[in-house]
Amino acid sequence: MLEKVIIVRYGEIGIKSPKVRGRFERKLIDNIKNVINDEIDLKQGRIYIHTHDLDWAIESLANIPGIVSFSPAAVTKTNHDSIKELIEVYIGELVHEGTFSSQDSFAIRCRRVGEHDFSSQEMAAYCGSVVYGITQSKVDLSHPDFELYVEIRGNKTYVFHQKIAGLGGLPVGTQGRVVSLVSSGIDSPVATFLMMKRGCSVTMVNFNNHPYTSGSNEKILKIYNKLNEYSAGGKLRLYQVDYGEYLHKCIDEAPERMTCVLCKSGMYQIAEKIADKENALAIIDGSSLGQVASQTLPNVLATRYSTSMPVLSPLIGLDKVEIENIAKKIGTYELSILPDSDCSAVPRHPETNADLPLVLETLEKINAEQEFEKAVSSVKLLK
Amino acid sequence: MLEKVIIVRYGEIGIKSPKVRGRFERKLIDNIKNVINDEIDLKQGRIYIHTHDLDWAIESLANIPGIVSFSPAAVTKTNHDSIKELIEVYIGELVHEGTFSSQDSFAIRCRRVGEHDFSSQEMAAYCGSVVYGITQSKVDLSHPDFELYVEIRGNKTYVFHQKIAGLGGLPVGTQGRVVSLVSSGIDSPVATFLMMKRGCSVTMVNFNNHPYTSGSNEKILKIYNKLNEYSAGGKLRLYQVDYGEYLHKCIDEAPERMTCVLCKSGMYQIAEKIADKENALAIIDGSSLGQVASQTLPNVLATRYSTSMPVLSPLIGLDKVEIENIAKKIGTYELSILPDSDCSAVPRHPETNADLPLVLETLEKINAEQEFEKAVSSVKLLK
User: Cβ contact (<8 Å) for B289 and A313?
Assistant: First the structure.
């Protein structure tokens, strides 16, 4: 039975100052510990996880922001006999499961840190002869079918053949908290995910437009649960704002075509108030320029004007198809496309060229601020 | 000699209202005409280019935002004999150049719009027999090595085998003008490209930090020229602001660690003034959260606070490696990494947790507004 560890590599953290780097590494380890209850070591810029449940660990690590790649590895002492013995068992298992065969060409990729009485090349040649001894496979250093990595770090040697891609990004919780406007559509969950991936703790804010929508929370709760799989320790929160009364007022008292602009402006203003309470420093949304009627430059300007907090729109430069591809990858797409009622407050011809002074004047006229205060005071914590 | 046309497909435009769609289609055709001086038709949701220079047209179309894919096609009349004749020549050429051989399995993909006395399936079977007659290749509808597309539109039939990917996005000029802060680094040219791809006309604003940098314009002009390849008709402008004097003032009169925050805040404020003159509606920058010291949430908040125009940061949710990959794809990467002087105004320990009241107070104290006015009045149009 081989002793197994998982070697975890992290990326951008590496280029930061020693102080920042230390903070990021500790946070990443905390986040991993929140999900994987195993022994975790940090050594020379790598994280080593001594896991009891390899499958669970692999599945979990793939969802933790800040990890660039990871490799399940077998570990032994750094000496020729132990390494030979380990490779024989390791390759034996791969041959048994059909991952590697005598038909495959192979290469040994050997790296070494520390003082040893052999060079990396010498050890690579030695390991190559061990593999050849088992399978009589051909060596091909340029385009091998199979690569075996032998990493020697001091008196420990790690052998592995897989580099599994992680999410990249930064550990959740290293960048402070943001408030994210999340509907059950395709875009806003993707925007939320991207900011979690960049290290933000996120407070999701969902607007319930009942009676202009069904008011059902089923989809948003499913989306919350999916996004929560990526939060790894940075507590993901979900608030809901009752928004129907304000929409009613917009429809009743303002020009019909302005409803969507007044709706969006209100969302930002309410999000800012919630952000203040949550000590959040920015608002996130799923805007993608030109994708729908409300996402023109004049509308972006007019709807954000009354908010002094930065609105960050990570999808602003992406195409619908690019956004959908991310949604499919992270598993929110299939939830977002579940059948749902469209918002019946949307007018037949929504404003696409909002006039800023008119928007400000209308917000004043319908006494929007009072509605926003009311909405914030009735906000519910769903998760 | 076959009559050749290029069939151009566009994507998101298709899902818009008929009025918006018409405007977008006309803009896309205008943009193509700006680059390719050929006869261009619009028919049933496709653009057909009758080109004199196929290679140039292919190279150009790949760089025009709003195009999803395009296919160089041979065209003939819609009748069995003409189609047979065309396929014989078309396949003959492909066999001659080695693109298709008798070893390759193949499939005919036939689509038909209009009234004809045959079905798509019948025509596909007929074309298949023509190809078989030439190469005796095996038909494989599920996983063919080679696909031949036969598109029948009324009395014209188009035959092609390639679908070349375009940039996607929206035609430049359909989304109004933005001002983009562009340095000669890796990120901001990518941000600029993404917003051009989303249909924006762009005014680039470059800050010349001389004497804290070399003051050379070589790199920024190269980057301008590269980005201009994607502007297809939406005039790309490049302004330069002399910024050394303001930086000198920051270093002289404000706490050392605040230089970068004051620098960035000034860039936004000057960009807003230029945007007003240019009738632009938003500011673009290359911020990526957490990538460097100035890109923390507190700094984003503090540096944007004095600007009322929206700041759109299309890279805010991307990793460095993702940004670099786009830069490599669009050809700005190799320009951005050319050797250049670092900015010597950057302090040893730049502020990472900017205090908003202190930033506002300091801007006031150093009379920044006056410096910004001066900088704007001396702005130079480089391109």
Answer: no
